[in-house]
């Protein structure tokens, strides 16, 4: 009698035998007359194999290995049972043991992340209508986020800009969405003043200070830890921007395009922008660079920071729901690995 293999060698040989049996059955349609047929599971794979650590009693020479599901079992999964006796009628007198299945690695459906969102808003004179829509829909956005069953309430922040820029509340989050909504209403009214955020000095140019607002949000907002938090900026503007360091309309612009993108990436902040296609004093200038098209050869900010761009004109025209777009951005980011570009 040839000695039976043991340990890992035994399991490897058992698996190999099962595979060979199955392939032979498919190719020939019959078993060799001098060998008892091996039964196989009705599972879609056609085979079951012993996983590491599976226990069972080794079959003696000439005994059969039972791997098939019992009659009426439509699951395709073999019964999890063993017998020590060779008297079992169904086994034909040989010992019966279960080889089990090799499980796939289970999907991780337990992802839990907090959500931090900072709104960076152009509060120049042309932005009143959009900010008012944002105010009207922010509570719907908050309710939609709550349905994601996140472990903690979302944190909201706000930065505003004209030619200057301000991170509201010193970068501290709002107590809730209702408090944020009240500030949206205040800044929507502010747009009628045609003033700088810091007070005084009229806004006589079309370029605005998007970059400092984005940089301040990325650098100074009180974000929760990046490893357990989705960090997002919702950026809204209908025009182009000053590229610092420079002086724009008498205001010092502190940060440049590349520097701002780098800081957003370093802080793992996704940028979802609502921007326009045409703007400027003639309402005929291309204002897409940096938002939906490259800026001086560099990727647009949303694309570079694993975000997206939405057309502000379609929100104002009612063909795109602002709350749906923001909710979509949150769902797109939820438990998704941050992958900046460029």
Question: Could you explain how this protein is built, in words?
Answer:
This protein has 342 residues and is α/β, with parallel strands linked by helices. The chain is 28% helix and 14% strand. The chain contains eight helices and ten strands. It has helices at residues 7-28, 128-146, 177-190, 210-220, 257-266, 301-304, 312-316, 322-333, and strands spanning 114-122, 155-161, 165-167, 229-236, 246-248, 251-253, 269-275, 278-279, 285-286, 308-311. The strands form three sheets. The chain has a six-stranded mixed sheet with strand order 3-2-1-4-7-10, sandwiched between helices. Strand 8 (278-279) and strand 9 (285-286) form a beta hairpin. Helix 2 (128-146) packs across helix 8 (322-333). It is globular, with a radius of gyration of 32 Å. The termini are far apart. Mean pLDDT is 79; it is low at 1-92 and 94-108.
Give a quick rundown of the structure.
The chain contains eight helices and ten strands. The chain has helices spanning 7-28, 128-146, 177-190, 210-220, 257-266, 301-304, 312-316, 322-333, and strands at residues 114-122, 155-161, 165-167, 229-236, 246-248, 251-253, 269-275, 278-279, 285-286, 308-311.
Number of strands: 10
Q: Largest sheet, described in full?
A: 6 strands, mixed
Shape: globular
Separation of the first and last Cα atoms: 67 Å
User: Could you tell me the strand content as a percent range?
Assistant: 5-15%
Q: Spans of 5+ residues with little confidence (pLDDT < 50)?
A: 1-92, 94-108
Q: How do the SSEs run, as a string of H and E?
A: HEHEEHHEEEHEEEHEHH
Mean pLDDT: 79
Approximate helicity band? 25-40%
* Strand-pairing-aware structural class: alpha/beta
Radius of gyration: 32 Å
Can you count the helices?
Answer: 8
Describe the strand arrangement of the main beta sheet, using strand numbers.
3-2-1-4-7-10
């Amino acid at each position: 009698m040839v000695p039976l293999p043991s340990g890992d060698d035994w399991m490897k040989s058992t698996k190999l035998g099962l595979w060979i049996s199955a392939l032979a059955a498919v190719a020939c349609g019959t078993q060799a007359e001098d060998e008892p047929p091996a039964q196989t599971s009705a599972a879609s794979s056609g085979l079951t194999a012993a996983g590491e650590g599976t226990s069972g009693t080794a079959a003696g020479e000439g005994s059969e290995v039972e791997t098939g599901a019992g009659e009426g079992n439509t699951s395709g999964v073999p019964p999890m049972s063993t017998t020590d006796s060779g008297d079992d009628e169904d086994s034909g007198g040989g010992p019966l043991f279960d080889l089990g299945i090799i499980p796939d690695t289970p999907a991780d459906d337990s992802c839990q992340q907090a959500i931090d969102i900072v709104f960076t808003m152009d509060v120049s004179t042309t932005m009143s209508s959009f900010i008012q829509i944002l105010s009207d829909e922010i509570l719907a956005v908050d309710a939609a986020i709550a349905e994601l069953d996140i472990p903690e309430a979302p944190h909201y922040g706000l930065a505003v800009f004209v030619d200057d820029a301000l991170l509201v509340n010193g970068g501290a989050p709002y107590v809730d969405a209702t408090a944020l909504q009240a500030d949206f209403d205040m800044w929507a009214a502010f747009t009628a003043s045609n003033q700088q955020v810091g007070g005084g000095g009229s806004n006589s140019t079309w370029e605005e200070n998007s970059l400092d607002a984005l940089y301040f949000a990325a650098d100074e907002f009180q974000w929760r830890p990046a490893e357990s938090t989705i960090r997002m900026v919702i950026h809204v503007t209908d025009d182009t921007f000053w590229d610092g360091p420079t002086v724009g309309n008498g205001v010092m612009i502190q940060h440049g395009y590349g520097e701002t993108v780098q800081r957003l990436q370093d802080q793992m902040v996704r940028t979802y922008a609502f921007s326009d296609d045409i703007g400027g004093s003639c309402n005929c200038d291309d204002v897409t660079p940096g938002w939906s098209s490259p800026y001086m050869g560099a990727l647009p900010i949303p694309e570079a920071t694993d975000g997206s761009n939405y057309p502000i004109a379609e929100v104002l025209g009612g063909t795109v729901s602002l709350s749906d777009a923001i909710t979509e951005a949150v769902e797109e980011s939820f438990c998704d690995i941050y992958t900046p570009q460029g």
